[in-house]
Amino acid sequence: MYRFLLSRQWVILTLVALLLIPTMIRLGIWQMHRYDERSARNRLVSNALSAEPVPVEKLTSPGHVITTAERYHNVIAKGRFDTDDEVVVRRRTNSDDEVGYHVLTPFVLDDGKVLLVNRGWIPADGPTQTAFPKIPAPAGGETTVTGRLMPDETTAASGIKNIEGLPDRQIMLINSEQEARRLGAEVLGGYIAQTAPQPKGDTPELVGRPGNEDAALNYAYAIQWWLFAAGVPVGWLVLVRRELRDRREAEAEPQATEETEPAAV
After folding, report:
1. What confidence tens digit (pLDDT) does each residue in 115-164 have?
2. DSSP annotation string for the chain
3. By Cβ atoms counted within 10 A, which residue in 1, 69, 81, 211 is the most buried?
4. CA pair distance 202, 72, nearest whole angstrom
5. What's the predicted TM-score (pTM) here?
6. Which of 7-21, 169-183, 244-258 is predicted least confidently?
7. Looking at the predicted structure, is the pLDDT value of residue 265 above 60?
8. How far apart are CA 113 and CA 200, in angstroms?
9. pLDDT tens digits, residue range 155-192?
10. Mean pLDDT over all residues of the chain?
């Protein structure tokens, strides 16, 4: 009765089932790797955000590349804002997904080095996108600024094209090497997203805290793939039993017909 398993249709079905099982198991393992990666990132970000601020020059210096462990760490700096060389970063959104600019202001430290400070978001409410927008002034004179340390932006990491020929004092990416060439100064690697002091009138709108990645979703996907893998052999057995039942019923029908036919006179 099981010879039908050697038919072309059933051989193909069995091979597909045998292929699906390890594939689904592997997909579940991959989702668990993603779960571990996201969980580790969430812990790293949480630890960085909760750490006490340290002087910025303890974590970065001119030409330094901000590492994953240093990203989001709270840092503090003393100096003054240089609004004469302030620029805006195009095509940035706020918490309501409104498109505008980020305000990038050089912050000159006591030793003359420059720290790039993202002071936050302003709307693109100028008459044209080529006009430099009106920007609220930062704190004047000697001041202390606190922020989250961020790595330089690149096209590869952000997906944002570094367009050339932009209007004066407008940029696409926040990049310390690029700004060092523009300013002709020693610029610390990376930049900070300002968290204090709070701007007057809440503008520019400070960049929000990074959110946690949904690691639990990857865990659920892993369990789902493994359940699918377990369901494949179960489904295969159900189909085999159904095929076997149908064949037995088909064989029994002629015999039942013969027994019910009236005898010839």
Report:
1. 999 999 999 877 777 788 999 999 989 999 999 999 999 999 899 999 88
2. -GGGGGSHHHHHHHHHHHHHHHHHHHHHHHHHHHHHHHHHHHHHHHHHHHSPPEEGGGT--BTPPPPTTTTT-EEEEEEEE-GGG-EEEEEEE-TT--EEEEEEEEEEETTS-EEEEEEEEEE--SSSTTSPPP------SSEEEEEEEEPPP-HHHH-----SSPPTTEESS--HHHHHHHHTS-BBSSEEEEEESPPGGG-SBPPPPPPPP-HHHHHHHHHHHHHHHHHHHHHHHHHHHHHHHHHHHHHHHHHHHHHHSPPP-
3. 81
4. 22
5. 0.74
6. 244-258
7. no
8. 26
9. 998 999 998 889 999 999 999 999 999 999 999 999 99
10. 90
What is the token pair recorded at 186? 């020693």
Per-residue b or e along 117-143, where b marks 16 or more CB atoms closer than 10 Å to that residue's CB: bbbbbbebeeeeeeeebebeebeeeee
Closest CA to 94 of 133, 129, 134, 121: 121
